[in-house]
Amino acid sequence: MDAEMKDRRQRAVEWTVGALSGVLVLCLILFLGHEAVFGEVQPARLVVSIAEIEPMDGGTMVTVTVMNQGDKAAAAVTVNASLKEATAPDKQIEFDYIAAHAVRRGAFLFPHPVNHTVLDIQIGGFTEL
Amino acid sequence: MSSHPGLPTETIQALRGFGRAAGGALIFSLPMLMTMEMWWLGLYMDRPRLLLLFLTSLPLLVLLSHHIGFERTTCWRDDIVDALTALGIAAIMCTSLLILFGTITNETPPQEAVGKIVIQMIPAAIGALLAKSEFGSPSGTDDDENPQSKRQETYGGELFLMGVGALFLGFNLAPTDEMLLISYQMSEVHALVLVACSLVLMHGFVFAVGFAGGSQISAGEPWWSSFTRFTLPGYVIALGISLYTLWILGRIDGLHLDSLVMATVVLGFPSAIGAAAARLIL
Q1: Which chain A residues are closer than 8 Å to B242 by Cβ?
Q2: ipTM associated with this complex
């Protein structure tokens, strides 16, 4: 009798765990289905901004954030930094991938003090996946 | 098997046990020891997350020792000792091989060296604990052939083994760039098909491998019964382990919900296979 009760209880636990798991998997399928049917597919749209300018030993570190506002990932994203009215060549950093709606951070290093007014940061380009 | 004059039998058995554990650690960790993304993770991985990974691995190893460790244990204290022994063997193996590969040199900062070793120790320790099931017992007998020594298997135990299987395969692949790259290349329709493939393949393994103990699948049982009780929970565990692994390795930082779900579904595929084939792998 005890063994039968134990077996029944174990079955109940198994079915409860199974039902909860089924609900979670169904939610995943509904989410992906909703995105597949109603989700917009805009190409990668990259926006770069200066997050922080930090003086450091012998120069300045300029941290930038790049946000992909599009619905597709971008690969080999290059960001260029140049100083206005300066003859020094542009500096460039490259992000391997930036996913849709994702934010990535990177930094430029300058051997001298810089500020917002003299700094020009632009997206150089990217490739589609 | 030849005897070793001058050495007591216990010493010989202990040495064989350590040798088997070292072999298990080697087999389970070698793919990751020779992957450069894993070296880099040891360099830059967020230290609180590395600590969390290490701390969460301790109860996992103790539970694993309790279920299928390298020796039959009778109490939790033995399981804790076995788990710590496995970690020690894993540390020795990983340190030796990383030095041998020139990944750790006398110029490597201690913080970097420790990071590189700790991240490799987890799969190696799992391998060390599973050494017995991989190589068999020293006397040539196996616990599976001895019903008296066989531990009673429970539904929770089965799900735990699925989790370990998912962690083993998922942890192998989570550090690679390809997991995210694949998720970027895929559309939501691809992801839906991948979810279906994961469930179908998992269920195939669940039927092929079968489950022992009180949760055995009988021949006359309809497919949806075992699908609901084993395959669906196994897949949810695989997805959970995938999400945890991706997060702890910093692979999904800054990702939006859509991309996070896609990356989890992609890593969930090998993790699901690992979960379903846990009985074969472990």
Answers
A1: none
A2: 0.80
